[in-house]
Amino acid sequence: MDIFILQVLNALFYASILYLIASGFTLIFGVMGIANMAHGSFYAVGAFVTAWSLGFLQSRGVEPWLLVFFLPLGAIAVAILGMLIEPILLRPFYQRAHEYQLLLTFGVLLIIEDGIQMIFGSDPLLVDMVIAPFGSLQIFSFRYPNYNFVVIGTGLVTAFLLWALMYRSRFGVVLRATSQDMRMASAMGINVGKVYVLAFGIGSFLAGLGGAIIVPTQTAVVGMGLEALIIAFVVVAVGGIGSQLGALIGALLVALVRTAGVHFVPEIELAVLFLIAVGVLLWRPTGLLGNAP
Amino acid sequence: MTLLETINLKKSFGENVVVNDVSFNVDDGEVVSLVGPNGAGKTSLVNLLSAYLTPDHGQILFKGRDITSLSVSERIKIGIARSFQIANLFDELSALDNISLSISARSGKTYTFLSLADRDTGVQNEAGNILSLFGLDDKSNIPAKELAQGERKLLDVAVAYALKPSFLFLDEPTSGVSTRDKAKIMDTISSAVRNEGVTAAIIEHDMDIVFKYSDRIVVIADGRIIADGPPENIRDDKDVISVIMGSQGNEV
Questions:
Q1: Which residues contact B245 (CB under 8 A, 6 or more apart)?
Q2: Which pLDDT tens digit goes with each residue over B6-58?
Q3: ipTM (interface pTM)
Q4: Nearest-CA neighbor of A223 among A149, A119, A114, A97?
Q5: How close does chain B come to A101, measured CA to CA in Å?
Q6: CB-based contact (8 Å) between B148 and chain A?
Q7: Digits of tens for pLDDT over chain A (293 positions)?
Q8: DSSP letters along A209-242, please?
């Protein structure tokens, strides 16, 4: 029983991070039709910026409980990075074939990965000092860090806020209209360029947030963005690309499968994950909640 | 007062001249019908006037100002809107959201993240009023793609109307709609337009509708205006009627 609860909590924790990464990826794809290969690297930048900033602040004598409030720094940095990349690099390529966009964003990925090494060095960064102030919760025979509940809560709150943004705000109507028919929205007088920058900024922010809140529990290491990108692909493919609810359900499913895989068949846990993804795609080629193209 | 004026407007696709030296005026508050056989150039003319096509030659003046080089969105900003022969809607959006999008595009309220759409009562009320003006109030939460053909046409007109244009082009607002619903749709559109004093140019094939709802009729054939006058004059002009009837005698 204890193990079961622990595994479910771990799965929810992992799902929350996956959801943050995948929701941003799927938002950008839904609005701009761009499969951003650099999205995993945005997640890594979020982790590194937060880890470096917290380390820096701690060395200046800032108390651990205060450092918590600086966690979002990584997400903000990535949002700014995204809002620079979209108009400067991506915009000239919207009219081109998808191959160009894949090549371009893959190039961005390479630059960011090297940039991370250049700026932060190759040593892993760890900022686990923010976990302790939250304390932990006794669940039967084990203690579970409360910080993990913060991560799970962040995923849930983000899902709600994104839903509200898409379906309850004025900007959401504009966003959905633009993603459906950019030319028509533009003809109506909507500033599509502005919508794109904002959408890309929000999508980037989400990936950065994933990196920022995971870095107290895992070290920021070079290459973390690539693994994130691949798993995020699985999440959006299973959930249905472009669908926010799909990203949520896909993240939960992938997290549960992977946690169970690690527990029961650790030797082939990734294989199990991909087999299930293949199964879902054979059954529903557009993903669980994807629309037929 | 003249609201819109074209001077020697010309457009051709290769050898095919679709709008040939068209000069005409529309006065403020008029409801004008553009009629003529299929392929006469009516839709091309409306496309030129709403910037979906660029003329090869000639000028378009709006309130005395040359607007020939303005884009679609720039023309919308100065008050020229249109509806389409095939309803041009955001299919996934509800009827209400289609309208409220027009209103926010018009008023520049599109980027307010924090104004929850449900509570943004100014926009929401106005959108609701426009929907009921067009008799669509019971459809407000239905996605546009699930509406019936006639409702889609009305919603398309309502979306253009919500941009608060001073000039509204309607490209066959009743095409694809059952004869029974045509009069209802035209009554709705006509009263909405006339109550607000909106100037309108309507492309229409059904001559009963044309005679009933227009102040003035412009007859186009082979890209040229061949007659222009009040309904009673056109009705009595046997030559003009035979040109219009040429391709569609069954509708007269």
A1: B252
A2: 999 999 998 899 999 999 999 999 999 999 988 889 999 999 999 999 999 99
A3: 0.77
A4: A114
A5: 26
A6: no
A7: 788 999 999 999 999 999 999 999 999 999 999 999 999 999 999 999 999 999 999 999 998 889 999 999 999 999 999 999 999 999 999 888 889 999 999 999 999 999 999 999 888 898 988 898 899 999 888 889 999 999 999 999 999 999 999 988 888 999 999 999 988 888 888 889 999 999 999 999 999 999 999 999 999 999 899 999 999 999 999 999 889 999 999 999 999 999 999 889 888 888 888 998 899 999 998 888 887 54
A8: HHHHHHTTTS-B-TTHHHHHHHHHHHHHHHH-TT
Sign of CA dihedral A245, A257, A228, A135: positive
The pTM is what? 0.85
- Residue ranges in chain B modelled with pLDDT below 50: 249-252
Residues of B in contact with A186 (CB under 8 A): 73
**Other Cβ atoms closer than 10 A to B238:** 7
Query: Which residues of chain A does B109 touch, with a Cβ-Cβ cutoff of 8 Å?
Result: 170
Q: At what angle do helices A192-214 and A224-239 cross, to 10 degrees?
A: 120
Contact status of A98 with chain B (Cβ, < 8 Å): no
Is residue A145 assigned to a domain?
A: yes
Percentage helix, strand, coil, to 5, in chain A? 75, 5, 20
Residue A88 lies in a domain: yes
The verdict on a CB contact (< 8 Å) between B110 and A186 is no
Which residue has tokens 């009963």?
Answer: B208
How far, rounded to the nearest angstrom, does the alpha carbon of residue B119 sit from its chain's CA centroid?
A: 31
Residue A179 is part of which domain span?
Answer: 15-222
- Mutation target vs B (from A165, A186, A188; most B CBs, 10 A cutoff): A188
Query: Cβ of B92 under 8 Å from any chain A Cβ?
Result: yes
Q: Which residues contact B202 (CB under 8 A, 6 or more apart)?
A: B31, B32, B33, B34, B169, B170, B173, B210, B213, B214
Structure tokens at A83: 């809002």
Contact state of A190 with B77 under an 8 Å Cβ cutoff: no
Distance CA A211, CA A39 (A): 11
Question: How would you class A222 by CB atoms within 10 Å of its CB: exposed for 0-12, middle for 13-18, buried for 19 or more?
Answer: middle
Q: What distances in angstroms separate CA B64 from CA A214, B1, B72, B76, B119, one per listed residue?
A: 62, 10, 18, 16, 40
Q: With respect to residue A259, please indicate whether it lies within any of the assigned structural domains.
A: no
Determine contact, residues A176/A166, Cβ cutoff 8 Å. Answer: yes
Count of the separate structural domains present in chain A: 1
Whether residue A96 lies inside any domain: the answer is yes
Residues of A within 8 A of B88 (CB-CB) are: 184
A7 touches chain B (CB under 8 A): no
